[in-house]
Specification:
heterotrimer; B: Rossmann fold; Alpha-Beta Plaits; nine-stranded mixed β-sheet; 10 helices; 36% helix; elongated; C: alpha/beta; Rossmann fold; two-stranded antiparallel sheet; 28% strand
């Protein structure tokens, strides 16, 4: 299973970014291999339709779970259609590593 | 947080006067947002002290490298926005028309087109005597006003999300900036005036709000300038099941207050009293 | 002679100036009046004639052949506006995001995308008199591509002895689209800090587009020093000062025209038109 965390930086020690579409990085953790890979968000600097474009990025990388603040609008519709589960991140200011632990431990609520 | 947008359809009906008046008398914690980014006027009443300014980048814009361009004309045929023009033998992108779709870059066989960042204006985060104000200035003639509206609303939410009220001064019209303004708000206050134009534009903005499922209510400004049309507007509200919020009389003191750069609710005049009553009643409903 | 009436601030009286100017000038020449405030077109409210023709404005949006589509998502990755998302099973299209650039149809390797017209507004034409025609562009409620409707309204108007364009308020792309190709721009302002602030912004747009301009001060209560000073400093001619009178507000508010009701106003608007022409021809 692949978990995606929008992040402010490229490392698992970096902070979670609450902005799903505008986060500069997406860290994708594979629970089977235990590996976490970092990707630059190609649309982070873009202006229009960032939500759906971010959703497409996640679909392209076979993500199953997104940990984020509440997602709305077209992005939500796209994530749902793609079968991606959205887990609501607990509090602001946590690191990517903490978010992955919380998500894999089943501690997070579904949106 | 309750998000209230003051809009009108027709311009010049008194949105900014009403917004400024409420900002002054509201007793709840609040953040103000001026979403009329083409012609932002709320700052003239709230006298903000700018704390931060950031550049606003719109959609990227195409740029043609004349050293690489072979003048084949394929991009001109592909561009739907008529944004590529010839100047003699040279091909140039009319920045104001370019929507940043990148079709020209895709079709150019010579690889002469690149996408460049585009500065479209500035965003300001300010403080006023009555709370923070988020406002912006769109570069003259620039596109992307809807995007800028989204940006400043997001900024207000991220900085002042703990306030009781987000009070938004909206743009005229029913297009891109208006839709961006009222999307995600809890309520839109429609300020109209008793003229055939004001009424006609009100009907359109009511219908747009419905498609966006934003609850609305109506206030008639300068209602005594044409009692007959004011009556028609009230009837329209009843018929269409639109909440009627109240009326503000025509009052020369409003123009004087604006000239002095003050919210009208700093004065004890009829217009100010009408707005105060309206807001007091409404506050009791909201909180 | 093409004149755009613009203002920056809304509600300063653009439509009033445009309609009266058109009515007065049509007494001695051929006039086409074009409502380019497509979000809130109002000029037809001053002329009660029924529209004689109407056409629909459409934009092309993608139509996906699901049998050919391989869900490769090239279209979604190309779309700069986030209007397309492709999952393993299907393609989602968000029409309100689509700018109708046509890129998805070009980029699709399977040839699965064709384009189909989607209505976003309409253009109507009215014959007001043998010498006055009104063209109105109307953006449908909920739509955002105002510029496209403006462009088609201007095309429908064609050229003529006098073509008068009523712009939307503001200073962004719809105003620029309206101004393009005009010989002159009338900036309508009111003597308040709001009016002046926005007059300066609108004037910037005319400078950028290289179109000469003149100012009409509307709803004047006599305290117009700041407006006059601004015009002097920027060397913009003041074409007229229209006083605030309840009577004028009433006539205007009820959908009538002061130039139709009053011969003196008729003459004044004619002379505003002649002044614009002499400013263009003298330049």
């Amino acid at each position: 299973m692949k978990i995606c965390i929008p992040a402010k930086g490229p490392d698992s020690g970096d902070l979670v970014d609450e902005r799903f579409g505008r986060a500069p990085y997406y860290l994708i953790h594979d629970t089977e291999t235990g590996e976490t890979r970092s990707y630059k968000n190609p649309a982070a600097e873009a202006m229009g339709g960032v939500g759906p474009r971010a959703a497409q990025f996640l679909l392209d990388h076979d993500v199953n779970i997104l940990v984020a603040a509440r997602v709305g609008g077209n992005a939500l519709e796209a994530l749902k259609a793609g079968g991606i589960t959205i887990l609501l991140s607990e509090e602001t200011g946590g690191t990517v590593r903490e978010a992955i632990t919380a998500a894999s431990g089943g501690r997070l609520r579904e949106q | 947080m309750i998000r209230l947008a003051v809009v009108s359809g027709k311009g010049g009906t008194g949105k900014t006067v009403v917004t400024g008046a409420i900002a002054r008398i509201c007793t709840r914690s609040r953040v103000m947002v001026d979403c009329d980014v083409d012609a932002a006027n709320l700052e003239l009443l709230l006298k903000p002290r700018i704390l931060e300014r950031t550049d606003f980048r719109g959609m990227e814009v195409a740029s043609i490298d004349p050293a690489v361009c072979t003048a084949c004309g394929i991009c001109i045929g592909a561009c739907r926005f008529d944004a590529i023009r010839t100047h003699g033998a040279a091909y140039r992108v009319e920045t104001g028309r370019c929507e940043g779709c990148r079709v020209c870059r895709m079709v150019c066989p010579a690889g002469a087109v690149s996408m460049q960042p585009r500065m479209c204006g500035q965003i300001f985060y300010s403080e006023t005597a009555w709370g923070n104000l988020v406002h912006a200035r769109l570069a003259p003639g620039a596109a992307n006003s809807g995007l800028l509206v989204m940006e400043i609303k997001k900024l207000a939410l991220s900085r002042n999300g703990d306030c009781d009220l987000m009070l938004i001064d909206g743009p005229p019209g029913i297009g891109c900036p208006l839709i961006s303004t009222i999307t995600g708000t809890d309520h839109a206050l429609l300020v109209t005036e008793p003229s055939v134009s004001g009424f006609h534009d009100l009907e359109r903005v009511v219908r747009v709000s419905r498609t966006l499922r934003t609850p609305v209510s109506v206030v008639i400004n300068k209602h005594d300038l044409n009692p007959r049309i004011s009556g028609d507007i009230r009837k329209f509200c009843r018929r269409e099941d639109v909440a009627f919020r109240g009326e503000i009389p025509y009052d020369e003191a409003v123009m004087e207050a604006v000239r002095n750069g003050r919210p009208v609710t700093e004065y004890h005049v009829p217009a100010s009293e009408a707005i105060t009553t309206l807001w007091d009643d409404w506050s009791r409903e909201l909180w | 002679m093409k004149i755009t009436v613009a203002s920056g601030k809304g509600g300063t009286g653009k439509s009033m100036v445009a309609a009266n100017l058109a009515w007065s000038l049509s007494g001695s020449g051929q006039v086409t009046l074009v409502d380019c405030d497509v979000e809130e077109p109002n000029l037809h409210l001053f002329f009660r004639e029924d529209p004689s023709t109407g056409t629909v404005v459409t934009v092309d949006v993608p139509c996906i052949d699901t049998n050919r589509c391989t869900r490769c998502a090239e279209c979604a990755r190309f779309c700069a506006f986030g209007a397309l998302v492709v999952t393993r099973e299907r393609v989602l299209f968000f029409p309100e995001q689509c700018h109708s650039c046509g890129g998805c149809a070009i980029v699709c390797p399977a040839g699965a995308i064709t384009e189909t017209p989607r209505p976003i507004g309409r253009i109507t034409t009215r014959g007001i008199s043998p010498s006055l025609h009104l063209v109105t562009g109307t953006l449908s409620e909920g739509e955002v591509l105002a510029v496209k409707v403006i462009r088609e309204a201007k095309e429908a108007a064609g050229t003529g002895e006098w073509v008068i364009f009523d712009a939307s308020p503001g200073t962004s792309c719809p105003v620029v689209e309206t101004l393009e190709g005009s010989d002159f721009c009338i900036l309508v302002t009111e003597s308040t800090p709001f009016g002046l602030h926005d007059l300066a912004l609108a004037h910037d747009v005319t400078i950028q587009t290289g179109i000469p301009s003149g100012v009409v001060i509307n709803r004047s209560d006599g305290k117009d020093e700041a407006a006059h000073r601004f015009c002097e400093e920027h060397e913009i001619p003041v074409l007229a000062v229209i006083p605030f009178e309840r009577k004028i507000a009433e006539i205007q508010g009820s959908g009538d025209l002061i130039s139709r009701r009053n011969a003196a106003w008729y003459d004044r608007f004619q002379s505003i038109g002649r002044l614009c022409r002499s400013l263009v021809e003298g330049a």
